[in-house]
Amino acid sequence: MPASYAQERLWFVDQLEGGSTQYIIQSAYRLKGVLDNQALERALNAIVDRHEVLRSRLQEEGGSISQVIEGGCGVPVNYTNLTALNPATQMSRIEVLLREDAEHTFDLARDTLLRVRVCVLGIDDHVMSFDMHHIVSDGWSLAVLASEFCQLYAAFCHGATSPLAALPVQYGDYAVWQRNWLTKDLVAKQLAFWNGYLDGLPQAHRLPLDRQRQPRQTYRGRRNLGALDAKLVGGIHVLCQRYGATPFMLLETAFAIALGWYAREKDIVVGMPIAGRLNEEVESLIGLFVNTLVIRTEVDLEADFETLLSANRASILDALNNQHVPFEAIVEAIKPKRSLAHTPLFQVLFNMNGRTVGSVALPDLTMEPIWRSEEVSKFDLELNATEHNGVIQLVWIYNVDLFDAGTIESLAGSFETLLRAVVSDPGQRILDLPLVDAEQRERVLVMGEGPVGALPEVCLVHEAFERSVRQSPTAVAARMDKVSLTYAELDAKANQLAHYLGSIGLGRGTRVGIYLHRSIEQLIGVLGVLKAGGMYVPLEPSHPQERTSYIIKDAGIELVLVEQSLVSKIPLGGFDILTMDGASNSAQWLGEYPSTAPVASEVQDSDAAYILYTSGSTGRPKGVEVPHRSAWNYLEHAAQSYLPDGLSGAVVSSPLCFDATLTTFLAPLFVARPMVILTDDATTLDALGEYLFGAESWLFKITPAHLDALQQKQVVGRRSERAHVIVIGGEQLSAATLLDWQELLPQATFVNEYGPTETVVGCSTYTVAPGTARTCLTGRTAVPIGQAIRNTQLRVLNAAMQPQPVNCAGELYIGGAGVAAGYVNLAQETQAKFLADPYGQDGSQRLYRTGDLVRWLADGNLEFLGRTDDQVKIRGYRIELGEIEGQLRQVPGVTEAAVLMSTGAGLNEDARLMAYIVAEGVEASMSMQERAEFGARCRARLSEMLPDYMVPSAFVVLDAMPLTPNGKLDRKALPALSADFTSLDSYVAPVNTTEARLCAIWESLLRVERVGTYDHFFDLGGHSLLALRLLSRIRNEFGVELSLSALFESPTVASLAQQLVGEAQSPLPSIEKRDDDEELPLSFAQKRLWFLSQLGEASAAYHIPAALR
Fold first, then answer.
1. Does residue 947 sit within a domain?
2. Long-range CB contacts (< 8 A, 24+ apart) of 482-486?
3. Which domain, by its residues, includes 160?
4. pTM to 2 decimal places
5. How many domains are there within the chain?
6. What would the pLDDT profile of 785-832 be if each residue is shown by its tens digit?
7. Which of 435, 453, 488 is the last residue of a domain?
8. Rounded to the nearest 10 degrees, how much is the dihedral formed by the CA atoms of 566, 572, 576, 579?
9. Which of 3, 30, 642, 807 could be joined to 65 by an S-S link, Cβ 3.0–4.6 Å?
């Protein structure tokens, strides 16, 4: 007898997981009163006799799955006596027993797929539990089982016979009917709908996870209980009547909106189970009838709820009109990218139960359902709604290896708040629907407030340095190689430069370029410019000349401080130059100018201290103008927080054009501490390593990419007990990286610092002090970015500038003393990015709109999630992909361009830029060699225009860019590059006989003309049944038994061939001679044929005739 389509899918999953517990359905009941054990056992046996499916076994032969029905057999009851325990211990023990039962797998080919346990708590108190495999049951079946048990138990207690009418059909009849009824035409028609409906479906949801997704689903779940009160439920029913919708439709629409806000995703995909009992005859059957549909909701933030509900109602009805195709057939038709880490097509499920089991009165007994706190979580998240007595009970089931309880509680609270707003005014825009109530709103706003720190009346950076000069004139200020300057000497040199600038008419508001390698001369230049009342503009010697020329012109630079060796690289004209050679160690340099402080200029702390250029989306860099007061607030924080007593000083190891350098370059000057400036050449990384593992403790400011590079280069086996302060910034910090460095430097304090250039280096920090428990980071992908620094406000807002709840993704807006003045010569962009703070005290405060997606964690720390735009970071440098794309379009022959970043296996590992281009007149016949040569020309051109960190690592010439249905570039459809950037779509022939034999099997099974060694089984059309046949062919061809999981883990010919010849192979055991007196069992094939022979009259169907002459 064939298995149903749903049974085939679950059998496949069971084989894939090696006997999984995820599809064990458990129900438990508290029995209060006198229990009649004999009546209980008779009732259970009658149910098993009545429903053939409970006596079925599943077996596979030749790639087909069939049901085998065993004869009458009772179900054993496992009695467990807990009467010796006190009540609290009894319930704890029951929780353990139920968990153990739920974790005890079934052998689908051998076991009875129903288990029963009765725990005896007292003479009139019991707990009864049922465990069934989902392959023979579903949620509806639980209600059937409970109902029939109650009726049979009551009858048997009174000595009566079964009151149940005979079943009209059995589950096996349904399975046969299903295969006959689902004709090719019907299936094709409905699959055509699903192919169109699910076209372009996201591979997985984008809900922020609290822990990194594991390579395999873990199914460890927990439940969160809630309820919608009668008043709210009444309002829901009124709306449903008004709009012709069901409560399911309204609740699912609200659920999709909540998910959309939390995930920052408009395309919301949710699974919806349906009973699948289309015929009246099967309503009273136990069995697997449930089917799962996929509901796709497009959350338009500008639409009102009424409009979205109407659209979603139509979408759900369309899905229901095409519900007859089994879910597994839809999966095979859609061919989503398969992963062991999550379910295909959807990972979030919403269910509204129609049948429930409440408290039931039996003879001398009451039976009431009970629930475990732990659950099997088949999906990442599941919401079950059940209406009972005017109240809707909500059960949230979530995977504990992905989500914290606080995250689900926050989502549940937002769901209810949203529903109340909808019932109050369904005409509201989705954008205006609140996710937090007034109390939660105030809480999240307070979470973003940094500590208040007193600021002087006038905050000038150079005056803070002069304060240190007065306090510690003889202390060393800066050292590089063999040259060092005390604070007094550094002050004198800076004063001489300031006097010189004044003598040539450069003072307040003057913009001076610093075109120097990392050196003490840089420091003199910066301080001299500030003392003269000007602002400095870093120019990086390693950047292309054209970029430097643009910055000089855009910033209006009047003077460039330069090394003699770099003069030839400057496009002279329109500004003066001053060579700085010898400034740090020659008395003759500007020796004619006074070394005393210049006459105080009229500079105010609202004047700019510096302009720093970052990547711009228009194809040109943009200058950020930072006032003294903003810089002062950060530098004072850094000096007080990062330079405790006991540190030898700071180590400067990054360029001046990188704003993070200010932490070690200027902050030490606020507290009269020394800095060591490392040479700006290939030895920097080695020198940095020597200081990290040297004899003294230092302040470092480095990027995660530096940490990764150091770890790979030289620190293996090294360890230091120095009490460094290591401030890490510039890009997202991997938790694994930090944990590795904690092992190497156990006494160091690590500070993960976040902040864009527009808010001065850092505005939030997360500190990991020595001895911090590793558990706070274990399981996390990234280190949180922490809490606001002094005089700073962090706002996590949605598109309507409304505060987002805890654990909900939103865009970060930053306010406070550190906000920059704006962009140079870009008034429109300044207006768009620097906004009035709607939550400020007097309306004068401004917020910088970062474009960064973040969320509040329950502990009050911020977590970085990504970007709202095409901005990325490489090696700590902020890059607008649009700038690279703009430069690419200027390359002769390029008509279209797109650039993506690939992060490889980790957050910082192997981060690369990848360019996709369409060449003028390109044809599909263009050879790979010609495409490679064109890409090389593009690379050469970009190298002349952009810094090396902005030049893509790979260039792919496409025939055309992939587009979305509305004609926009579909970045998700751009072809992925392999780790070694080999050519795309290239055939790789097998290199040995194993690969050749596998290619031949694939070509036969998949019906494709040619299979290469790096082709992917599922991308070529493979699915679950073909996978079974493939493994069967491998077993026959190679005599090797591979598991389904081996195919998922090694889905290419090359990787599967390695499995066959490597340690993973498991050859079939050899057949051993039996003992002569040993009882002979039937083989599985013989059992099946014997069973078939018992079903009817003697048949010749299985006779094998042969004649010999």
1. yes
2. 483/520, 483/584, 483/585, 485/520, 485/584
3. 5-175
4. 0.76
5. 4
6. 999 999 999 999 998 999 999 999 899 999 999 999 999 999 999 999
7. 435
8. 20
9. 3
